[in-house]
UniProtKB/TrEMBL annotation:
Name the UniProt record assigns to this protein: J domain-containing protein
Organism: Cyclotella atomus
Signal peptide: none
Record Gene3D superfamilies: DnaJ domain, Urease metallochaperone UreE, N-terminal domain
CDD domains with a match to the protein in the record: DnaJ (cd06257), DnaJ_C (cd10747), DnaJ_zf (cd10719)
Molecular function as annotated in GO: zinc ion binding
Region spans: Disordered: 377-408
PANTHER family noted in UniProt: DNAJ-LIKE-2, ISOFORM A-RELATED
Domain called J: residue spans: 29-90
Keywords, sorted A to Z: Metal-binding, Repeat, Zinc, Zinc-finger
Key word Repeat present: yes
Amino acid sequence: MFGGGIPFGHFGGMPGGGGAPAEDVDTTKLYETLEVDKSASKKDIRKAYMKLSRTHHPDKGGDEHKFKEISAAYEILSDDNKRAQYDKYGLEGVSGDDVGAAGGEDLFSMFFGGGGRSRRAGPRKGPSVNHPLKVSLEDLYNGKTVKLAVNRKIIEGTPSECTACKGQGAVMEVRQLGPGMITQMQRTCDQCKGQGMQCSFKSERKVLEVHVEKGMMHNDRISFRNMADEVPKCETGDVHFIIQEKDHELFKRKGADLLIVKEISLNQALCGFSWKMTHLDNRTLVIKSKPGEIIKPEMNTKEALPYVKVLPDEGMPSKGNPFVKGNLYVMFRVQFPETLSPEVVEQLKKLLPEPDVPEEYDPMEVEEVHLNEADLRLFGKGGAHQSSSEAHDSDDEGGAQPVQCQQS
Ligand SMILES: [Zn+2]
């Protein structure tokens, strides 16, 4: 978010052509719903959402409506664009259709109750459709235009008012329940399925040019306004293609950053390495260690994190700003030799710094021991254990049994 002083309207693309919002536009309700300040950071908003959604989740006995409100508020405020629109234009600036959490519910009635406020002008909108679109990491790096054919229903001729319900979309049904008891029930008209209009449809095949922008992320949407099936008396819904990033065999992606895992030998870790790598745009990079550079088995931190190095600006391009790239992280896995011959050991001992200094002792006085293979997950499970059932058994069975440690 920008610091407040920047007039968004000047950048265009906002509803109402950047004009001032109506004075009574509410731009605080969503913040109140998430119990955060209007200046809250993305992180704060996420934290608040996580906390509230846990408390109000319907599976945990929470109120479903409240949960939907929280989800819709989070969906808007966690998205920079939607948040900017909301801050300026209130809910008017955010299309209900863009908020999946609303589940097709009108955003106004969701937050302000039915009839509390006039809805947006214009006809109702027909259902929108989402199509998943699998995209390779290469295509997300380089950008791509794909032509996709969609089949849609379009209205043929002019729709006419439904004769069965006289355009009401619903019919009253009188039912006799018993002697002297009748009930009137309203049900959706079968003839027009509640549309109030009757019309014939034809199928249309439409080829859409889908521009996958450089740097797009998993679940990003590419939308085509009014390209869904036509519905009489309604604005036609939209077609959305939802980016589904395919796994890449070399690169893992998080945001704009990329990560590769590189196995190197102990020799390479100590004496240097160079390896050729083909990047997502087909450039060949030769990654070389600097003289004297040593790759360690793990970072010198308390948590023993994997050893990583970074190549700045070799990550993914940023969406909307493709010249700003993320970074490429290389996580090293040093492959130690399984064993070494005595000759090699002799050589290494002379060459590597800080060789072992033999301890002096009398072998008759001390115990000489060797180490076995181990599994840290078994740490703490040594010693004699009594299982709880055995603990209640009679004493003469001798409940204590040695635990067998697995050695692998
Ligand atoms: Zn009808």
